[in-house]
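Hi everyone,

Forwarding the result from last night's run.
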Amino acid sequence: MARSRRRAAEAEAVRETVGGGVAELRPDPDRPRAWTLLVDGAPQSHVDLDDPGRLSFPYQRRLGHVVDLAAPAGRPLTAVHLGGGALTLARYVAAGRPRSTQQVVEVDAALVAFVRRELPLDPNARVRVRAADAREGLAKAPDGRADLVIADVFGGARTPAHLTSTEFLAEVRRVLAPGGTYAANLADGPPLAFLRGQLATAAEVFPHLALAANPAVLRGRRFGNVMLVASGVPLPAAELTRRVAGDPHPGRVLHGREAIEFAGGARPVTDAVATASPAPPPGAFDHLT
């Protein structure tokens, strides 16, 4: 461990101006080939090149549980990732489910180039990365092919408005295979109006829903990440609940009637009235760095 710390300490942060601001890859002091990606100081993702199956951020671990439960262990998936970051989830799928076919859509071409240069993908991974707007890229995906669609898109630390509507989710459902799963990383804080609206929006398109987050976030006590999961078929809610509760940072899962009640009468969001998610307060994600 001491040797790893020395090697990490010797590594220097790498910075580059990209479309969304200043991207920084900050070395992990405990792992010699692990890095945290930040954009304009906001942590985006963490990746360990020596162990891509290791997910450090709590929200990434929860998305990883959805990946693990999407099909029997080891079975290849067809996955669409909206938002690239450090390509952490694409690397995770490739490591745990070899021969998976993956498409990553990331609007920031300069960020893609920076990440791929500094943190190269495994050449055996079947991952295509397209520089395009998430919704435009999704519109080009074929009908009914994806086992999994993961949305983790932030612009200036906010989910863009055009990725929050029923029209957007209708496109997601079009792309999903009949038993496919949609998972989105969202962020909100008191009074959780954005999150409740997103749950009501998803309920317009998908019959089966779940939320997973830190209990304090779901109680409206602080700002944080929330994972929304949706499908046309029943979700493995009991196993997802068990895994999320057993994480190093335990979370809570709401599903079924409890999830619908959480929406609290919020109205679905359409393109005509969609707004971006709220900006995080200063220091909201300092615990990730």
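The chain has a mean pLDDT of 94.

Cheers,
N.
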